[in-house]
Amino acid sequence: MESMMALLSERPIEAPAAAVMIIPIGGDTLSQALITATKLRAGKIRTTVATGKRKLKKSLATASAKGIPFVILIGEDEMLLGKVRLKDMRQQSESLVTLEEALSFISPISL
Questions:
Q1: Residue 12: inside a domain
Q2: Rounded to 5 degrees, what angle do the CA atoms 93, 69, 81 make?
Q3: What are the C-alpha distances in Å from 97 to residues 21, 34, 35, 101?
Q4: Does 4 fall in a domain?
Q5: CATH no. for residue 40?
Q6: Rounded distance, CA 91 to CA 84, Å?
Q7: Tell me: the pLDDT tens digits for 30-55?
Q8: Which end of the chain is more exposed for a tag (fewer CB within 10 A), N or C?
Q9: Structural domain boundaries, residue 102
Q10: Looking at the 3D structure of the chain, how many domains does it have?
Q11: Mean of the per-residue pLDDT values of the chain
Q12: Cα(62)–Cα(69) distance, rounded to whole angstroms?
């Protein structure tokens, strides 16, 4: 049994990469980002939230380096409109959509 445990401890465990990174932009957007993350996770979409105070360019570079296919940007303007900015990192495209539209677009791809 101990030899099996030793082998397992040497084996790296890779967590599946997130399908979406949510980046809150601006002062009071973190709470909306967390609510959005909860809704995405309820839809079985692997989600991470960038909670640090990094610049947008650095956060986008991190998402790209980790192979995260979608980024959702939530700024004050998006909050007022009740929408999110969905960025497709593969196609380098961006659109302003409702969360429901984002869910329907991401779901078939991320699963």
A1: no
A2: 55
A3: 16, 18, 16, 6
A4: no
A5: 3.40.50.800
A6: 18
A7: 999 999 999 999 989 999 999 888 89
A8: N
A9: 19-110
A10: 1
A11: 88
A12: 11
Residue among 18, 16, 34, 109 nearest 71 (CA): 18
Is position 1 within any domain? no
Contacts 24+ apart (CB under 8 A), 103-109: 103/39, 103/40, 103/43, 103/45, 106/19, 106/20, 106/40, 106/45, 106/70, 107/43, 107/44, 107/45, 109/19, 109/69, 109/70
Q: Amino acid letter at 18?
A: A
Q: Which two tokens stand for residue 25?
A: 């932009």
How many residues appear in the chain? Answer: 111
* Structure tokens given for 64: 């790209």
d(CA 75, CA 83): 10
pTM: 0.82
